[in-house]
Amino acid sequence: MDKEELPLNYSDYVFLAEKYYDNNQLDSAYYYLLKIKKFFPVPPRDIDTTMVGLPNTLMGFYFEDMNQPDSALIYHKMAYQDRILYFGESHPETSKSINNLGLLFQRYSEYNTAEGYFINAISLVKDFQLYQKEYLKYTLNLSNNYYLDKNFITSLTLLNSLSFDNEDENVGNIYLAKANCYMSLKEFNKAIYYFNKAYPLFDKNLLRKAQLANNLGNAYSNLYQDSKALVYYNKALEIRKNSQNITNNELGEIHGNISSTYLKLNELKKASFHLEQAKKYYLKNNPVNQLALSNIEEIIGQYHLLRFDVESAIKSYEQSQFLHDSILYTPSLESGNRYLTLANLYLLPPFRDTLKGLFYLKKVNKTGSELLKLEALLLNTSILINHKKYREAKINLKEILEVESQINFENPIKQVEIKLQIATYYVNLDDIEKARYINYQAHKLLNELSIKNGVHYYRNLLKYELLEIQCLLKDKKDSIASKKANHNYLWIDSIQSIKPFLKKDRIINELKSSFIDYYFIAKSGNKLALLSALYYPYNKNKYPKSKPNSLFIRYKVTQDKLIIWTEINGKKDVFFRKMPIPLDKSILSIRNAIREMPSAGEKSKVNYKDIYRVLVEKLSCSLLPDIPLETESILFFPDQILSILPFEILVHPTNPKKRLIENYSISYHFISTSVIYKTNKKLRRKILAFSPDFQKDSRGFANLKYSETEIKKISEYYPTLPFTKDKANVKNFKKEAPSYEWIHLATHSDPNLNSEEGGALIFSENIHKNEPSILYANEIISLKIRANLVVLSACQSSIGQYTPTQGMNSIAQAFLNAGAKSVVTSLWQVDDRSTAQFMEIFYYYLSKGFTKNKALQFTKKKMMNKMPYFWAPFILIGETGDI
Length: 883
Known about the structure:
By secondary structure, this protein is α/β, with parallel strands linked by helices. The protein has five domains: 10-241, Serine Threonine Protein Phosphatase 5, Tetratricopeptide repeat (Alpha Horseshoe); 247-328, Serine Threonine Protein Phosphatase 5, Tetratricopeptide repeat (Alpha Horseshoe); 331-388, no CATH class; 530-652, no CATH class; 684-878, Rossmann fold (3-Layer(aba) Sandwich), CATH 3.40.50. It contains 37 helices and 18 strands. It has a six-stranded mixed beta sheet, with helices on both faces. Helix 2 (26-39) runs antiparallel to helix 3 (54-65) and helix 7 (132-148) runs antiparallel to helix 8. The longest helix is centred in the last third of the chain and has 22 residues, at 602-623. It is globular and about 90 Å long. 45% of the residues are buried. The model has no long low-confidence stretch (mean pLDDT 86).
């Protein structure tokens, strides 16, 4: 703020606060607003009417920008009271605060509440000529509220009810709103009409004008009028290039649209130029917009295809798929098209790489020779069934049976797989008689195999059994289906115990998990039966003894539903939740937003925060049951993808402004295979602490600058035996770990998701001696760990391969299986400095006598002023008592 600015009265302070807020200098604006509160607790009566309620309104806007909706709500309501006191309750001026309240609730997707405020605001101004501008604005806000709630027809009806004399930017917003509704309704000609009416009304708002031109291009592109689309895309580009404050994303978007259109028009040179420009702008972003970059890579692949450059096309499509898979769940149809293209490319010159082609064809089950044609038909049939086009699917299946009968299969397993796939489609089409007949044919072929011991034999045998269960369920024979599912689960479990190669096979484990799913699905119509299955498929003694006022929540993810069991103080319940969107997409998107927020630019940070907030609220509604009033702590037993979610970030079902961790201590259950070691030898009541040295590490691991400081801070609260630098090696850890009550490891870890060893902890490197410097999870399990608590201050130490009976095959799980009572572990890569701070606070609370789960809760609450990236990754698995 300027030193010369010395406000003399109330009006001066309000003027400066408004000025700084309008210039996005929020700290300065907040400073003057606080001064107003201090010096003028009651506003003077002789002020300009435009200033009535303005300080509280600005304070409300400030807290909205700070993403503190509770505080924003308080100040908007105070502004409303200011206006009531000055003007009276029914005066049109009070509508301004009511409208602001509506916008606040709309911002947080509470559309029903927002609707009430907008209607109230409209009713206060509609009969006053002087407030017609406000009337249009409030009506537009209400219309937008319906639009955001996907009620496009109601939104349009409201917009069409508006009348106006002069066409200005406000009217342009009405036309734009109508056009957007028609775009959502796929009535593109009507959308174009209103975009064109809005376009000349934004001559003074160039950014809006550029977006309108881009929207017109999109509308014409949807109508396959590419030349017209190109005209508007180029207009948008010209406006954006000459505008200030334009973002790299906006420039990348328009260059991408232009390049795609030039490809449709087969103007390859122009397309190439704009593709390079689009990629350049997207790469300038920090962080890089990987989804946008993925789409550009796919368009580049199309460009290379049109140039018959197969090698370059393959690189682009593979890069596109890699980028897409790294950030989002890719819909099956989209992935299928990309994999199909890759399969065809690898079968073309210069590669003619049949193996690579079949690799991608196996992913999409779509190809082009006789066998490949059959697989293409199978994929097409799958898509038809998914889109509920059952008549066309049945026609396809008739052709598939004809083609399949004419093929002389060199590989009988391939024929079995195809028959099982066909039988699956008939189950989906409710033709159970046909499904059973073809499934029986597949089983007969399996029995005719000369070798019945390979992994493919067992995979297909399990698929056959699953189809039999599905047929039973379709026939409403739930009891038989449940028994058969349980029998097959126990059978494959016993086979895996004597055939280790089956235990390691991911597909076998997925099929095994399916038997558990169908066991529950078969019982879903009988609540009592489902309640009795609370512990299935584990023994009851694998579960912790219930503690007073501790809520146990178990999840089971099935095909399209979530089963949730709860138990507290002897009362059990169970219910279903339908999943509106794929769980993996939601959870991975939340994790991505958490990861990107700390390093994102200001605008991107806001976007990530909005994505995070919306997804967390939706996921909380889907995952959390009603929490009884007597609940003091929660023990979660997650399933599948839920195992990588920190439930602490979820919000309370009845109070979405409160994170779960703010009210409850939280821990996680695990299924352990640990052996109880009987010994009279007492454990040493010290913390065994390891802080390896990576300063001169030849393996590429970054130096952990704060790990030694972390251990020193811990030693202020508990007696500690530290192993640092060269002494922090695998040999010393193996020797000492079985003898200590508490273990703390501040090091690197590698989840090694595709490794049979199940991840590893990294210790100090000794280049002069032939000693190991990595300790794998399968080695940890063999150590006789009896520690009350193991703290893994290491990245992603709770991440690993998921198996239905053992959960995550992670480093944390390895310690639990080795005999540790509990583990504090991390769900993602953690920051070295903030982790040291986190651990110091955690041990402080432990030293004050708090239980492990309470100490972790208080630590997270203490650090909650930071982003979730810093406090949310650490979770407690196992016993929750004190140490």
